[in-house]
Structures are given as C-alpha cells and as structure tokens.
Amino acid sequence: MFHPLDTSSPPPRGAGLALSGCLGYRRFHRRRMLQMAAAGSTSWLTTVAERLARAGERRTTPRPKSLLILWLQGGPSQLETFDPHPGAWIGGDVQAIATRVPRVQIADTLPATAEVLDRATLVRSVISKEGDHERATYHVKTGWRPDPTVVHPSIGAIVCYKSPANIEIPRHISILPSQWPARGGYLGPAFDAFQMYDPANPIPNLVGPTSPEVLQRRLDPLLQTVESEFQRGRLRDLDRRRTQHQTTAREAVRMMTSEQLAAFDVKREGETTLKRFGDTPFGRGCLAAVRLLSVGVRCVEVELNGWDSHINNHELQTSNAAILDPALAATISELEARDLLEDTIVVCGGEFGRTPQINRAGGRDHWPHGFSVLLAGGPFRRGYVHGETIANPDPAWFKRKDSPEADSSRWVKDPIDVPDLHATLLYALGIDPSEEQMTPIGRPLRWSDGRVVHQLLA
Predict the structure, then answer these.
(1) 369-425, pLDDT tens digit by residue?
(2) Percentage with pLDDT > 90 across the chain
(3) Which of 176, 281, 359, 381 has the fewest Cβ atoms surrounding its Cβ within 10 A?
(4) Could you give the CA distance from residue 304 to residue 381 in angstroms, rounded to a whole number?
C-alpha cells in the first residue's frame, strides 16, 4: 500500500537531482563499470557516492510536508480557467489552448499555467453541498460543513498541530486575507493563521523601540503584573500559569529578533524572479510563500479575491486569471527549482465554481456541482486529469431548481466531494485522516470523515 512518506518507489518526474542521480546509478552495468575502472576513469564514483549519501540521508530523515494554498476567494469559473468548453452553449468567450499534457487543454486565460500542467494533477469534478460564500469557504478550508456546536480547524492548522514548533516565526501564515482567514478552530487560537498583506511593504510593529535586551527587561515586569490578573480563578495545572496572552507576547518578541524575518522580504530576490511572479500583491505573496516555506513554515495561504462574477463574468474572470497565471506557474517552477516541490503540496482553487449558463447580466452565478481544483507537489500524480464536466448539458436542467443540485452525476463524471478531497490532502501530508482528536468539550472528532482518493496519488 502506498504511504506518502515511503521513498522506496521511484520519485515523480522532475524530482530533485539527488534522487534522480541516485536512480541513475542503477543503469550502470557491471561490465561498463569494470571498463571504466580499467581505463582509470573512476572519478565519477565520487559524484555517485555523494548523491547516494544525500539520497540515503533523505530516506532515513524525510522532510515534513508543507502546504501552500492559493485561495481564489469568490468562486473562480471553471469554464474560464481549468475546464473550458469553447463552442458549446455554456462555453462563453474563452478559447482552449494546448498544455504540456497531451490532449489536455485549459482556457487561453492561463498560458503560463499550461506550460507547467505536466507537474500537476487537475481535478475537474469537485462537488460540494454549500453554495453560500461563507459556508462554502468554511467547508473547503476545513473539510466539514458548518456546525453550530463546533468550529473545525482549517487544514493548515492541522498541519501545524501535527508538526514540531521549530522556527521563530509563525508556522501558519495567511497573505492578503479577506473576511474568512484560516482558523485554528477547536485546536485553539495559537493555530490561527498569522495575517499579513502585500509583501512589498514591511510587516508593521516588528521594529522594537529599543534593543532586544532592554525591551525584554521592560516586558517581564509588565507581563507579571498583567498575568497575575489573568490567572485569577484559572486552573493551576496543565501549564495554565502561562496564559495565551503571555505566550503570544513572548513569541512576538522572539519573532522581532529572528533572522528568519528575512524570508518575508521579497525585495531580496532578483528583479527577474520578481517579474516572473507578476508585479501584483498576489504575485509577491506567492514569492513570499516560497521563501517562507524554505525556512520551515508549514502552511501558507495566499489569497486572490474578486472572482464573484454575477455580472460581466468574462471581464472579471479573465482579469483575475491574468494575475493568477504568472504567479501560479512561477510558484510551481520555483518550488521545483529550490527542491521544495517534492515536500510541498500546492492547492489552487476556491469555494465553488460558476454556473454553466450565463445570466442576463452577462455573469455566472454560484455553482458547487462541478468545479476545478489544481494540485501539485508531494505524492500527487503529474500530468493527470481527474473527472470531467459535460460540454452540452440539457438547458432544461437549469430551469428546474432540483435537477442539477439533486444529481451532480448528470453534470460531472468521477466526482470528488470536499471531504474526500480533504482526506486525500491529509493523507498526502502524512496525516491519518481518521485520527481522532478530543475537542475542549470532550467530544472526539476525526480530522476528516472523507475517504482517500488514491487515483490522485502517484
């Protein structure tokens, strides 16, 4: 059975040089080796030995998996991005272009993404039961539908909960967040995403008024005074002498003096790299995400808002796609170039898609019954497309409220619902989706109630 941390099978195409070199040594025959030794040409053994040593080190100490979410808030249209149907009555004004995957096309709004699609899995058949922005965002980010009795953690919070706190900056970061950022839920506010905005600007309030030593001497008595009031009536065991307020204050001071803060500064990258991501806040956010992942941040979410196209669908979708396209393509390429793609899972998608039919205002409305999500990195297959939406559905379906909603199979083939997508992501991150966690009120809950979709995994 496949396990995401098992490296005994060959790595996917495009894996780091160390592993590809390691596999290459198997192609040397004994006769060829003896011939080279007899000719005195054995210097190549040093290179092979070094690569074998690096590969062996990685196999015994696998790097923890990280997560990068490119969140498209508002509901991107599958028909104007990853699943076009030009010429069909639902097709709109976009055209389809070829990609690096044979016989697979995407919309002409994403030309750069087409060039890296061979390094990704494209799921064209995600289905959901939530069509409201807030509820659907919660559903996709947590894998659960909203429940008034519990607040579930986002998948990024779970990743951080399951990994060691071994860096001095936040391990869970949201760049350009809007009204529904990733939350820690019942895991606690310590796992909420740290929020920041355009990386072109410095993070506010990180420069202390004095030296770190003097700041610490001033902070200690202040915290002791404040904490004595916070601690009144609290439990005295379970490390409750240190409140969340005190923990947050000390972590803030540690962050202010950390050299890892340099990872936020995209200006340290060359001008060529900056241009590849796009001269936009989202492009800079994606580049910052790559830098943050390289220093050990476990989950970064970069948000691109503005996909809610009830009117002027074509203009709104294509303008946002023009921002997404260079950033998405550069993110995948840069992660691969920095040997991070094998251990980072990239998720690109929103809370739902858009209706196949175009409304009277030239827009598309909310559509959770068959939309697209792109996955890349980790153990996900490369150059694979899962599911499809049909190009010419019966227009009569959309005149009755209960028809497409009641039976998504009439619109999509090989559907994957949101809980199953979450279970697969957790499994790919090395986390058992069925593992139970006790909530603060004593209620056991699994990380996910979905099933792992092994077809998506290499």
Answers:
(1) 999 999 999 999 999 999 999 998 887 776 664 554 556 767 899 999 999 999 999
(2) 66
(3) 359
(4) 25
Helices 418-428 and 133-142, axial angle in degrees (round to 10): 30
Beta bridge partners of 71: 303, 349
317 backbone dihedrals φ, ψ, rounded to 5°: -70, -45
* Mean of pLDDT values over 103-118: 98
Statement: residue 136 has pLDDT above 60: yes
**Mean pLDDT over the full length of the chain:** 83
Tally of CA atoms within 13 A in the half-sphere of 180 that contains its CB: 22
Token readout for 166 is 């071994």
Judge if pTM exceeds 0.85.
no
Cross-strand pairs, 66: 344
Give domain 64-202+265-456's CATH number out of 3.90.940.10, 3.30.565.10, 3.40.1280.10, 3.40.720.10.
3.40.720.10
List the structure tokens of 383.
């150059």
Domain spans in the chain, listed from the N-terminal domain onward: 1-62, 64-202+265-456, 205-258
| Residues 224-281: tens digit of each pLDDT | 666 666 666 555 544 444 555 556 666 666 666 668 888 999 999 989 999 999 999 9
Half-sphere exposure of 106 (CA within 13 A, CB side): 28
Count other C-beta atoms under 10 Å from residue 420's C-beta. 21
